[in-house]
């Protein structure tokens, strides 16, 4: 056996994540490793928390990155906030709502499912009915921006309803953070998790989370121990908390956190509102191009995420073959459909650093060319011009 | 708020980990991110598994990195292998044995504790007595190389005993992998986890694990679901397994895995046995210097880890002040004692890339100087010469 160093191809990442990583972040990750209890590292942790509070628009003290990918951020919220035997209302309108159900069950709690057609937002009237029928429910969980379909739900309204019925809320903001308006304090979200590899343009592997005082109160007064030692916030707080003496819990992923810090510095430089506007702007250009081809979006305009564009695959086209050509000839990655959407949609991400004019035009040109070669029923040659029209308007 | 990019100080890392990272690994981590389902990435995953099989000396198919630090690797072993109500014998001779107990309890299982004085290896006769007393025990768990004390236990003998009583084995090899002889197949270990930031000299954040066919059989035939969705190997295998079609489970930490792959390539280049010998060699030089100062080791020579040297703090010396001066004046990090060892020992790591002559001599020179300035009762000025004697022998 003689295996050599790995040199990845240089791709343009316009799938559902990871998205293109800003080279500043890659450079930050390659800086010299220091100890996870080094005073210089602890000072960086404090800056990271402050920057993350800004990104989440919160003053929550317990706002920090979990040392593992978004799926672990999800699990952190569920295992800490839910005790065995509780009833949890889960609003499901895509793959990630299904994972929430799995999490609830593995906490020995009972999920009450509100199911919505994929591609539609969560319906507040259905949530209200479920809250009325289940006065003993303790938590409501939903996905703000469904990465599997590209639909956004009205988080503010859903949280308000949950609170009227004395339920805490767990919100999945993996794809919304930094891409769509998200205001943790104003909307009174209790527990929220996100990912780094979407609109923050960072490498995958870290999950930012934030918890309200109400949530912390429940966590600190649990009757049972949190079932995960690694994710137990009562222990993690000893390391990430504001205490003078940081106590060792686990070894933090030092270099990944350098990259995460840099991603948040970049977001602060751009400004959160500017980031939201940039995502909306490039979505509009992509949309003009997609529609000029005669293709359609899977999600209604009103509930469509600018950063994740689910485009319906034209009749008779082998969608996997299209993605394969885009990857091999253009080094361009776009995403497939997940679960019941497999084969039916493409997911084109315009997230973070990847949300720019060059990517929009290149993607449209490549997709238009590949579909034309496959004799798809599209209007060829119009897509790039339509997008340019948006940029020059 | 205006927070700027973080530029860490350049340290020499001779604590209990993270250890000095080979610059090749830092450079590898900064390579362009690609998708976690990209064919080029999947090919790299296959190489990583093969390299890791070599490092663990195993042919176990289920040999892969968990996408989170060593603590999550530990939890992966426990939550997958243990079902509620089982009896698990935990051999404890330091901090990490205590964590194993926490893991067993959080799996709703019953830990049977075999406690050993800290700094001593696990005693096989005590294990055998516990196995006889608890014929219904299903698993035996122990730490191969205790990072909190620097003591090594006889893993081969302990596993053999466990198997005689039909128990599966979970072994913590966080500090031993690549630093001390470790032979997963020859010793018939069933489940093993390690870290990246010790003798592999990689950045923290990933936990290599390996499972025998016996272990996989148990995992695939569980009566209850694994309590962690993120760590459920039945699901993770869909992504890391040998199936042609990789199914998405969570988004892998792509760039951290570039670094891990590079760390394993470096180990393959050096050769595993050469790496073990290098760790032993530099330990001998450090030992000569430490003893020349008149300081003593906490662990008996026979059970002493070469890569983690627990040195007893001399009477009347403020150990934290010594570490502070080493860090601030020499950019040199050594470790403190954990738990009941706090204030009593230093932990000097000679792990991976950090296990070299320059580090040994610099550490001895700095420690000798700082202790002399503090009027410690040591023989000053002899340490470096003694270590050099080993190198020139």
Characterization of the model:
The structure is a homodimer of 393-residue chains. Chain A is α/β, with parallel strands linked by helices and 393 residues long. Chain A folds into two domains: 22-269, Aspartate Aminotransferase, domain 2, CATH 3.40.640; 272-392, Alpha-Beta Complex (Aspartate Aminotransferase, domain 1), CATH 3.90.1150. In chain A, 41% of the residues lie in helices and 15% in strands. Chain A has helices at 23-29, 39-56, 70-81, 95-106, 124-133, 155-164, 213-220, 233-240, 254-270, 272-292, 319-330, 357-373, 383-392; strands spanning 12-14, 62-66, 87-92, 110-115, 137-143, 145-146, 151-152, 168-172, 191-193, 207-211, 308-312, 332-336, 345-349. Chain A has a seven-stranded mixed β-sheet, with helices on both faces. Chain A has a four-stranded mixed β-sheet with strand order 1-12-13-11, covered by helices on one side. Chain A has a two-stranded antiparallel ribbon with strand order 6-7. In chain A, β6 (145-146) and β7 form a beta hairpin. The N and C termini of chain A lie far apart (58 Å). At the A-B interface, α1, α2, α3, α4 and α9 of A face α1, α2, α3, α4 and α10 of B.
């Amino acid at each position: 056996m003689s295996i050599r160093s790995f040199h990845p191809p240089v791709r343009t990442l316009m799938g559902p994540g990871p998205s293109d990583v800003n080279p500043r972040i890659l450079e930050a990750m390659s800086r010299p490793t220091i100890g996870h209890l080094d005073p210089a590292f602890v000072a960086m942790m404090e800056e990271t928390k402050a920057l993350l509070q800004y990104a989440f628009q919160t003053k929550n003290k317990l706002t920090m990155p979990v040392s593992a990918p978004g799926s672990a951020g999800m699990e952190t919220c569920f295992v800490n906030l839910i005790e065995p035997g509780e009833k949890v209302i889960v609003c499901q309108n895509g793959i990630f709502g299904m994972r929430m159900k799995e999490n609830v069950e593995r906490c020995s709690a009972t999920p009450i499912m509100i199911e919505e057609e994929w591609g539609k937002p969560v319906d507040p009237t259905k949530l209200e009915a479920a809250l009325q029928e289940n006065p003993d429910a303790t938590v409501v969980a939903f996905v703000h921006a469904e990465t599997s379909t590209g639909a956004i739900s009205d988080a503010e309204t859903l949280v308000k309803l949950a609170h009227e019925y004395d339920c805490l809320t767990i919100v999945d903001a993996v794809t919304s953070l930094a891409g769509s308006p998200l205001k943790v304090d104003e909307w009174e979200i209790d527990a929220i998790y996100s990912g780094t590899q979407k609109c923050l343009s960072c490498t995958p592997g870290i999950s930012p989370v934030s918890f309200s005082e109400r949530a912390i109160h429940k966590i600190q007064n649990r009757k049972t121990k949190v079932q995960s030692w690694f994710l137990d916030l009562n222990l993690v707080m000893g390391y990430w908390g504001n205490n003078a003496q940081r106590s060792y819990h686990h070894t933090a992923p030092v270099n990944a956190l350098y990259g995460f810090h840099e991603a948040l510095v970049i977001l602060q430089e751009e400004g959160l509102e500017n980031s939201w506007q940039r995502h909306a702007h490039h979505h509009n250009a992509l949309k003009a191009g997609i529609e000029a081809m005669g293709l359609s979006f899977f999600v209604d305009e009103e509930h469509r995420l600018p950063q994740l564009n689910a485009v319906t695959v034209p009749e008779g086209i082998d969608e996997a073959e299209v993605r394969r050509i885009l990857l091999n000839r253009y080094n361009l990655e776009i995403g497939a459909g997940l679960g019941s959407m497999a084969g039916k949609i493409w997911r084109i991400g315009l997230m973070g650093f990847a949300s720019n004019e060059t990517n929009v035009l290149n993607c449209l040109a490549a997709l238009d060319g590949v579909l034309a070669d496959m004799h798809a029923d599209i209007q060829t040659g119009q897509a790039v011009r339509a997008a340019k029209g948006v940029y020059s308007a």
